[in-house]
Amino acid sequence: MVILKGLKIAVISWLLTVCFTSVNVIGAKWYQQKINIMGTTAKVELWSENETAASMAIQDVFAAMEHVNATMIPYIETSELYKINKRASQMPMKISTELFQLLEYAIDMSLLSNGAFDITFSSVGYLYNYREHVAPSATTIKNLKNAINYRWVKLESSPQTIFFKNPNVKIDLGGIAKGYAVDEGIKALKARGIKHALVNAGGDSRIIGDRMGRPWYIGIKHPRNLSKVASKLPLVNVAVSTSGDYERFFEKNGVRYHHIIDPKTGSSSKNSQSVTIIADTSTYADALSTSVFVLGVEEGLKLVNGLDDVSAVIIDAQGKLHYSDDLVMQTQ
Ligand code: AMP
Ligand code: MG
């Protein structure tokens, strides 16, 4: 089992407060609800003393997620992202503050990851259809690859506009939007005073507090046997995101075509099978899990080990587990 160093302290300090907490929780219980959204299942689990309060809090989370989805879904004509891809290469286009800020964050992540995270991957990436087993030809990739470069995206702040300096650029926030939606959900729960909860959307989860006396256990799927767990992480008050090459993929002529694109090649990254990141927010963990997946073990661990309060579990291309320096291995 893997134990986070700081977690032991968190668990001990929780034990000191458990008696006090339990006085206040008579009649309280866990509430859980799921919906299908953003191409995945989203789940909220929270501790509340009151069913109506729990239900209202859960509805707030799903409303926040619906809003993120409606703004950032790439293939629905009414979404702001769809309109950007349609028009931003013609002239600077005014966009909402919310999207502007997330786009700025995405560009910062490109700089941090040395271009491994790049929302313009979609300039080629939009041509993959994993359900229909379609991949762009080598010639198409060659012709469009130059459009994959976050430097083509020009953000101006007053007024807040976006402009693509290359007509072939398309952007997609699939590598960060679910994490952002989870953070928005957590914000809604905190605004309602919720102290113990988990919000999850696909591979992205964030936790408030502990699970009443225990840590939350988040499993990392075995990338080649999805009914198995490769590792289990006991976590308190953090965000955790996993990027895996098994989420959306097909195989053709022995090649695995999956949804995480190496911006350098325009093809699916061959550097990892799965990457899990633990960080303070889901937006950060989500963007980093995609980044480290593309970077692979050596560069990925170098990045993570240099960041404050970020941990990583990487399953490399051969299926071997690697941990960031702050994670302590314990065999039990
Ligand atoms: P995740 O599961 O968080 O790694 O997100 C995967 C999604 O991120 C894909 O479905 C794409 O929408 C998007 N994506 C793929 N490759 C990249 C990349 N190199 N940089 C940023 N986003 C990407
Ligand atoms: Mg991600």
Please name the defining characteristics of this protein.
single chain; 332 residues; alpha+beta; 8-stranded antiparallel β-sheet; 3-stranded antiparallel β-sheet; 8 helices; 19 strands; binds adenosine monophosphate; binds magnesium ion
How would you briefly describe this protein structure?
35% of the residues lie in helices and 29% in strands. It has helices spanning 5-24, 51-72, 80-87, 97-112, 122-125, 138-144, 177-191, 282-305, and strands at residues 2-4, 29-37, 40-48, 93-94, 153-156, 161-164, 197-201, 204-208, 216-222, 225-235, 239-244, 249-252, 255-258, 261-262, 267-268, 272-279, 311-316, 321-323, 327-329.
